[in-house]
Amino acid sequence: MTVALKLLNINKSYADVSALLDIKLEINDGEFFSLLGPSGSGKTTCLKVIAGFELPDTGQIELFGKDVSSIPPFKRDVNTVFQDYALFPHMNVKDNVAYSLKIKKTPLDQQEILINEILSTVKLIGYETRKPSELSGGQRQRVALARSLINKPKVLLLDEPLGALDLKLREQMQIELKNLQRQFQITFIYVTHDQQEAMSMSDRIAIFNEGRIEQIDTPKNIYNKPKSAFVADFIGTTSIISKKNALKFFNHPSAFSLRPEFVNIDQDNNCEFKVDAEISDIQYQGSYYKILFKNNDINITSFYYPNSNSNLNLELGSNHSLSWSANIITDLDE
Fold first, then answer.
1. What is the CATH number of domain 239-332?
2. 181-239: per-residue pLDDT in tens?
């Protein structure tokens, strides 16, 4: 498999703040790869280094085997889509999309063919003469995508491109982005702080925390096999049981992560882990309830689906027996 991008021991600091610390990363050609983390974790700085907008203090950047560490952005075979779209407000859709073709002095007849092809792909035929101010947020995002894809770059960088959209439109655009990536078969490197976004679209994800990469893996493995308490807590809902409490309550030698869908409530079973706890909070989530339990120093979350056959008396302050199997927990280092 061809490696599209390789980052070798990348470090980047701003004054006394370390933004990237010894970043090592390989992304395959044609992969949808997400850089995921909270604000200030280093993911956007990493994208800027890949694009060439920022130069690393140390380390090397390779695109398809070529060292591009000191090459300016316009000479790298990558394009970038930003959250604010970066469209020219005085230009219509067609001129925005055609901008790079005009800079390259592409023949006019070829420009027309390429513009029509890409506008058809992003479902904007009929919008050619509209200005960005006359478009919806989703349509403006499609124009930005069309402008970036028309040159068929080897790598497309996307910096929180759906952050300004409402939830329904964001979910729709997630599907469209993944379909575009499959259609063009190019490498997408996608920055987001939204866990659901990264989990639903990505082939693999790099989890950033305080300038470091905590874990690189598939969405399924990151959810089921987190390598640190940070990853376990950042992705989805989980209960983190400290080493002290694991020993005290369960005679287990290490801290562990426990996903709520595996926690049984008032079930007579042979599970290895059992504890009595009181309901401290009940959160209605539509198709299920998120139940928070407390026993002295430990807090455990479980999901309860009311259309199941069980008839539980779940009220604030009520006590219940919780249980789960040993094979579903993930041991963590503290």
1. 2.40.50.100
2. 999 999 999 999 999 999 999 999 999 999 999 999 999 999 999 999 999 999 999 99
Q: What is the pLDDT of residues 115-155, one digit of tens each?
A: 999 999 988 999 999 999 999 888 898 899 999 999 889 99
Tokens representing residue 293 in the block: 């339990």
Q: Could you give the C-alpha distances from 263 to 254, 278, 313, 319, in angstroms and in order?
A: 19, 14, 16, 15
Q: Does domain 3-234 have CATH number 3.40.50.1100?
A: no
d(CA 303, CA 320): 14
Amino acid identity at 7: L
Helices (H), 104-194: 108-121, 137-149, 167-184
Domain spans of the chain, in order of start:
3-234, 239-332
The model's pTM is: 0.91
Tokens of 81: 């889509």
In sequence order, what are the residues at sequence separation of 6 or more whose Cβ sits closer than 8 angstroms to the Cβ of residue 76?
51, 52, 63, 68
